[in-house]
Input
Amino acid sequence: MPRQIELADVLRRHGEAFRHSHAGRLGHGERRVMAAITACRTAALGGHVEQCDDCGAVRVAYNSCRNRHCPKCQWTAREAWLEKRKAELLPVPYFHVVFTLPPAIAAIAFQNKARVYAILFRASAEALRKLAANPRHLGAELGVLAVLHSWGQTLQHHPHVHCVIPGGGPSLDGTRWVSCDKDFFLPVRPLARLFRGMFLDELRRAFDAAELKFFGDLAPLAQPRAFARHLAKARRLDWVVYAKRPFAGPEQTLAYLARYTHRVAIANSRLLALNEGKVDFTWKDYRHAGRTKVMTLDATEFIRRFLLHVRPDGFHRIRYYGFLAIGRRAENLARCRSLIDEAHAISDPDPPAAPVGVDDARLTAAADPCVCPDCGGRMRRIGPAPRDPDSAAAFWCDTS
Output
């Protein structure tokens, strides 16, 4: 059976040519990501030799790059994050709402990632919280877990925020739990209008404070009149806010979170082939009922699209708002559970089922690098692995 193609294979074979062809347009962040993924789990980063106590199998385990864009380094981080989130699930339905920027605004976001992505987070969360606080809709405080995605299925720049939200919240006076309708969260049209207004108002303030930069085709927007006209056109557009049906339960919520939290652009499992300078990968065509298709791109174009999604240094793409905000999350969740218990005691004498977690044993076994892949025995470190000084020097040169 042939080995699974990886993103690192594409970068090793075609990364150098890409660097030369994009020498004047490739930033330090993109170069660092390319170098890290290429070196991940190779002799460039060093490692150690292990031997199984039971069957005597020997293997070399090279160190990981730990770059947050590397598909091989995100699985363990994702599972560790999920373990922490399990204890925070509430015994209520969970809803999924997606906020998307229109192309004319997405182009500005690409040239001002840190500033505009932060506006996208705040505007989507505040629109949810403001509409939910309205007594005509819910009259409650929400908790929001928001995850930024900057890509679509074909790796083009497509910034949007996925929000996972418990179906209800404490009443505004904090005395009771207010539940959503089991099949309906908040009306999408007023939510979209509220999101659009909040986003564009804050974008305008960022422009007035000289916090936005414009290059290439967008350079004319640096002029106040041109920027004002651009925003006026954006205000006349219908912005896309999509609310999906509620999850079936906490277990399904965890399964969903596992797919959307620690992933950047594309997983290695979607890569099919790398031949003659072409990359084949799968994608879902949501305009045709999510049908899985195969796309073929030149390797240089594939690399270019992947690097569109390199995040600014220090930028957090998972954020929490409302009663899930980090500062008082534990206290707020305890209060929510108490209110939910009171509500169920009044309406239903049978207490709700406890949140269903993931299989701890399965996660532990799958994530444990000390388990022998041949017999399941214990792998023990017996010495250092040989290191390639040339590749190590190249790695540190690119990442420094």
In short: Residues 351-367 have pLDDT under 50 and may be disordered. The chain has two domains: 7-69+370-399, 90-265+310-347. Residues 7-69+370-399 form one domain.
